[in-house]
Amino acid sequence: MTLSAEPIVYGLIFIAVLVLVEGVYLVAFGKSISLNKRVNRRLEMLDKGSKREEVLAKLRKEMDQHMASRGLPLYSILADRAQKAAIAFTPQQLIMMMVLVSVLSFVGLTVGTEAQLGVRVLMGIGMGVGGIFFWINSKAKKRISMIEEQLPDAVELMVRSLRVGHPFSSAISIVSKEIKDPLATEFGVIADESSYGRDIGEALKAMAERLDMQDLRFLAVAVSIQQQSGGNLAEILEGLAKVIRARFRLFRRVKAITAEAQWSGKFLSAFPIVALIVIQVTDPHYYDEVLDHPWFIPACFLVGIFLAANLFVMRMLVNIKV
């Protein structure tokens, strides 16, 4: 029995792509950009001596640049996720990163495997584009999850600030200083925009649309209605905080209930691929007798379509809106 190291090489190259991209990102923008170290990036930039308007301009550019570049080739698949993750790389830099890691993946496959040229090219491009997308998607999910968890505390802090007599703009500013990132920087941008004349309700609505979060839309609507018709904003926000916490608990419960179905779908889709890798490692010549059959390639495509359909259907079944 001959063991093949090629599947291991593929996995190591893909992991190396993720490590390389994360390393370049941290080197280029510093550790404060990492979600693992939840410092207030906006305040850190101000402490380093940057002017308030310069910090605001830089942060707004980072937040809005991705959706404005959806027309770039290959970038439309990344724009929404990159915006939610607030990736500091520009769209052009991300495309250059995809090209760079694709080339490095191709070189690694050339050195570590004996695959044909066409396979190495396709795998290199797949690892480059797929690795960047996986990296951005994981950051977007983590950042949105952290914002959802921080939002109730931020709203309750606004309520306490309003009840002691602070105006709403000051309450926003207090939130931007007292809580941690990523929500602190988002509210800091709103506080700065308010200081330069932008309507707070409009700024909150823009943030809710950019992050595509229903709870933030509730907050923006509540503030806009209070601005137009009056009322006790502290009581409104207190009720909103309770609603957000209740929705968050319900979402966690739904997630726990549907976890089995989600993992079943992932297992059923991954099992044939894992089985194929194991077969190739333990017996690389297992499929030699059928490689030349006219139905072999169409059958492979059909299996891939069924696996993708299984993931899509299982995701649709367990994607319960809360």
UniProtKB/TrEMBL annotation:
Alphabetically ordered keywords of this record: Cell membrane, Membrane, Transmembrane, Transmembrane helix
Pfam family, any one: T2SSF
Protein name as catalogued: Type II secretion system protein F (GspF)
Example of a GO cellular component annotation carried by this entry: plasma membrane
Membrane topology field: Multi-pass membrane protein
Domain Type II secretion system protein TadB-like N-terminal: from-to ranges: 1-143
Organism the protein comes from: Marivita hallyeonensis
Domain Type II secretion system protein GspF: 155-278
Transmembrane segments: 12-33, 94-111, 117-136, 263-282, 294-313
Superkingdom of the organism of origin: Bacteria
Compartments where located: Cell membrane
InterPro entries the record matches: T2SS_GspF_dom, T2SS_GspF_sf, T2SS_TadB-like_N
